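B., you asked whether I could sanity-check this one before it goes into the benchmark set. Here's the sequence:
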Amino acid sequence: MTQATIASDLPVLPVLALHGVHHTARPTWKLAETVQFYRDRLGLPLVHAISAKGWGPDNHADFLHFFFDSGNGSTIAFFYYIGTERPDWLAVREHYQDRATHTAWRVRDEAELLAWRQRAEAAGIPVRYQIRHEVIESIYFNDPNGYPIEITWQMRPFGTADREDAARTIEAAIELEQAGRDGAGFDSIEPVWQRKGSRIDPGPEAGTDAGTGAAAGAPQRASIYVLDVPEFAALVEAARHSEGYATTRLANGYVRIDGNPGLRFQRKALGFKPAVWYGALTGGLRGSIQQFDMDALVVTAGEPA
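And here's what the prediction gave me:
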């Protein structure tokens, strides 16, 4: 199922736009601690509160719904349900799937991010970590309810290349998800990258020589496709200075890196943080991954058996 197929199933709809986040909302069973944390320790003004006698149904508890100003017209909101206790199924856990539900609050630049880190630490809030992802750098900490908080700055705007690459990624993943429902396996990201790689480049097929396009039986190559953006520039630069590797700038916003018979990169030599390193193949590949861990990436020619 492609994006075009999905779109064709929808009626003609008007073009609309959203204008940012008005509020996020989560329940709390720690009223005093939550107010102290957001208003007094983080310094976010308490700007609105609703108190209500239930909300219609007999089993709906009386509640407070209160809001803290988080900038540019957005707010952080909480529900406090009077006389109730947090159910087990809403308990906060450290599993990555639970922590995936979070809100990232934006600041303008690195200086502001560091200022927020200093404020959090001065207020006695433990900062869990500071991470530079592909296009953002963030600090993370928890509020008294255990909810993860992220404060981030975006190092560059998203452009056309980002949008087109995202479309290719999602299209490949949707197709593999559907195939998985039909009985085929889909349990790793590698087939997404391989499917992208087979579509990005109209040049020589996997298993042919990068220079001549010679048929199978000639020296084989492995290829990776690197989006031509600053966060992955070190990968391209390393390939340019590696014997036996070739780089080709494609017209669709990628740089193809070829290795005959394969490719090998070391994370520390590239200066990549883990969050960027593990997304280094997001542009796509031709070949198969022999090794991809914290230290090394090895891609060999040919599809996996």
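One thing to flag: Residues 206-218 have pLDDT under 50 and may be disordered. Otherwise nothing jumped out at me.
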